[in-house]
Specification:
7% of the residues lie in helices and 29% in strands. The protein is mostly beta strands. It has a six-stranded mixed beta sheet. It is globular and about 45 Å long.
Amino acid sequence: MRTTNGQPLEHVRVELWHASAKGNYNHPRDTGAGQADPNFQGHAVVTSDENGKFQIKTIMPGSYSAGRGWIRPPHVHFRISRAGYESLSTQMYFEGHPLNQGDRLLQRKSPEQRARMMANRIEQDTTTYVYDLVLLPKTP
């Protein structure tokens, strides 16, 4: 987590949620909720540290049908907030996933915006990703 000038931003509230490995959300409005994984919570709230960093350990979200001919790729939803800064709601996608190319929400974004929405592997042989978030200061 950082500011627009690159400074670390501590004490940022990070809410996140995503689908289970089977593509179900732990939510009553999910039509596939009957197949939800009872061992998977699906959401968390964390706070960035003094270096603007936070870390979560979770599973790779599953893909799911979002309508006729549309399969959502794995993604994580974020809602970010801190006093004095604009709140941010976004989705993080995983670089190189083949379903990214057909995601109707992701494809509405410019190439630059899509690049900012991609989590990048730290190393090719791991399942660890890094995702950079930047908050804009509130304007008076």
